[in-house]
Amino acid sequence: MGLITSMVTFWLLILVLFILVNRGIWVFTDVSKSMSMFMLEKALGPPIDFVEGRKGAASTTWILQGTLWIIPASLVTFCGLWLSHDPQALHSLTAWGLNPESTSLTTSGILIAVYGAMGMLLIGSSMHIVPELGATSLATEKNATLMSFVWTLAVIVMFVGANNSEIAGVSVMPIATILTNLVLLAVIVNMLLTAASRTRKMPLPAWMMIIGMISAPISILSLALTGSLDSGSGQWLATRFSGTTFFLMVSGAILYGSSRGSGNPLWSRSLAAVTMAGAIISINPAGLIEGEIASDFLGIGTATFEPTRNDIVAGSFLLALSLIPVLALSANVLATMRGDDVFMENPDSPGMPEINLAAFMAVPIAIGGLFVHTDYLTGTNELTGIHTSLVLLGLWVVFIPASLGSALSIFPEVSGRNMLSINRSRWAFWLMAGGAFSGLVFTMMADFSDMALIEAAVEADNSTANRVRVLGSVLFYGTVIGSVYHSLNMISGSFRGALATEEQNISSTSISSPYMLTKETTVRKILAQREGKLDTVVVPESSTESPGSATEI
Amino acid sequence: MIVEFLQGEGEPSSSWVMLVMGFVSTIVFLVLYGILFPSSDLPVISSVLPVFDGVFDSGIWFFILGAMIGIFAILGTMLSEATSE
Predict the structure, then answer these.
(1) Domain assignment of residue A164, yes or no
(2) Are A102 and A182 members of one domain?
(3) Are residues A152 and A72 in the same domain?
């Protein structure tokens, strides 16, 4: 069946599920609730007693592991970038039976970053955001904590599978798929039970996270129902759906994080609704362009990508539509963080710079992705040479900062302690952001240079591009150092950081000592007196024009 | 007397001077090396320590070792934080 049939099936399934989640399953609601709780805790037997059931324990565990996964993700990506200009750099590893190549390392770096770092950070954040917005508590902290370790195991299997697809005749990737889906199922059930026990109307960010998680199995189900999984278009669409899943989760996380960290209310509910509906209706341009990765995950043969004319028209239109939710999200987050002026509120709050960067970069990266995907869909293939760099750029300057920023903004509340040092946090941000942006922009420049030479049919080795790739990979190393800094800061903070209950949250509306203006003055004079900063509130002293008179005794 | 280790939150402005000096001297070193040894690549670990010849013979190993130091720093931090009184 065609692309549009799969999309319509996906929309219908999501709609039915949304209604069911809100309305319950008739008389089976109570039975399914108690049965699900039993399956999540008691049915697991002794392993469930190994983990902690304290409030916030699950969220903390997922966030900590997610942050730690950023280190191998950035390191493996760095090695992939390095090997693109020096393929023999790691030849000594052949002594251990390893034969790392640039493409396999880059792909495995992307997978670790997406599932290990971003996935864990987002799931960890959702375990705080959903109960918090529903004014309830997570259905089972113990199961959620236990599942984090299974997810980590799945990411390790994924890494092995990306570099060595078959071990002893067994395909490795499907094992990772089984493990991740097992965990995802437990997390979804946990989230649905939590949502069912909500005591107030849940705001949209929580729904975005829940629907985002559910959209992962639903998308594959809709492709299976329409029989598109073994076609090239179906596998391409499966890869696009993973972009939808993560986009919805990231949107929920940063909308919550931007409001939580800045102290400002969410700027627009309508834009949040547009983000959610738009993400479901459109085809997301995030992620790898080929459908091969989806077939690897599902353990099915890779089909040739031969879209029909209808597929091209519908796909291009739905891809173009994806810009609406991206613009809505970016505008909403930036406006929320800035409040009623042009400056970011509480820029030292943990995670705020990361969220700001992600919201700022989301639009240009999405436009770039749109061009590359439309180019691939229409079979032009003139821009496919830069697609890996663009995916990496989107990952390291939008998705990872957004998920890390949101996780950092809620970490003090779930762990009970603040980061050890704001200063180190700032350094980590600049290293990660600067390293990723500059390194990947240089790599993209080299890609463009290679593409130009291929087009001109020049067969000689492109030494200029290779030199630029050296610079790109070395600059990207800043991301590795930044991730180490972030991890150290978070781990030390969870032991020795200032207690979250002790520190007052600085809000944009509560300035403890406003500058009292008694007569006309200039901003320069106020600043010169070291009385004020850019966000100091200037309050005019009340005075009257009526003449004074003697005080009556 | 037990002396504690203290670390402030504020950053002295002069520390930036040291960072800039470090950056500039690195660039100067690289330029000088290119002028003095124009046909030679930068030395790698195996050219400094011949015992690693054929193993660490690419510049990437400097970076990988740096990352390994970072990972061990995290492990060390976790152990010391968990066991400190």
Answers:
(1) yes
(2) yes
(3) yes
**Closest residue in B to A427 (Cα–Cα):** B11
Strand, coil or helix: A499: strand
Spans of all domains in chain B: 14-83
Indicate whether this model's pTM tops 0.95. no
| Domains: count for chain A | 2
Closest-CA distance, A531 to chain B, in angstroms, reads: 19
| Least confidently predicted of A36-50, A129-143, A223-237 | A36-50
Chain B neighbors of A488, CB-CB under 8 A = 73-74, 77
From A422, A474, A488, residue closest to B73, measured CB to CB: A488
Q: What is the pLDDT of residues A307-336, one digit of tens each?
A: 889 889 999 999 999 999 999 999 999 999
Query: Distance between alpha carbon A213 and the CA centroid of its chain, in Å?
Result: 12
Q: Which amino acid is at A77?
A: T
Q: Could you give the percent of chain A with pLDDT greater than 90?
A: 53
Task: For residue A426, give the H/E element and its range.
Answer: helix A422-455
Give the lowest-confidence range in A226-230, A388-392, B44-48. Answer: B44-48
- Indicate whether this complex's ipTM tops 0.85: no
**Residues A436-468: tens digit of each pLDDT:** 999 999 999 999 988 888 888 777 777 788 888
* Gap from B73 CA to chain A (nearest CA, Å): 8
Asked whether residue A553 is assigned to any structural domain, the reply reads no
Q: Which domain holds residue A523?
A: 513-544
H-helix segments, A339-421 = 352-377, 387-394, 400-415
Q: Does residue A287 sit in helix, strand or coil?
A: coil
Q: Is residue A430 part of a domain?
A: yes
Q: Does residue A374 sit in the same domain as residue A517?
A: no
Same structural domain for residues A468 and A517? no
Whether residue A525 is found in the same domain as residue A383: no
Whole-angstrom Cα distance, residue A513 to residue A518? 15
Q: Which residue of B has its CA nearest to A487?
A: B74
* Residue of A92, A474, A484 lying closest to B54 (CB–CB): A92
Distance from CA of A474 to the nearest CA of B (A): 9
**Are residues A453 and A528 part of one domain?**
no
Please list, in sequence order, all residues whose beta carbon lies within 8 angstroms of the beta carbon of residue A221, skipping any fewer than 6 positions away: A13
- Which chain B residues have any C-beta within 8 angstroms of a chain A C-beta? 7, 9-11, 54-60, 63-64, 66-67, 70-71, 73-74, 77-78, 81-82, 84
> Does residue A549 register a pLDDT over 90?
no
Residue A214 and residue A191: Cα distance in Å, rounded?
10
Identify the closest residue of chain A to B12 by CA–CA distance: A423
- Enumerate the residues of chain A whose CB falls inside 8 A of the CB of residue B59: 86, 89
Contact A302, A317 (CB under 8 A): no
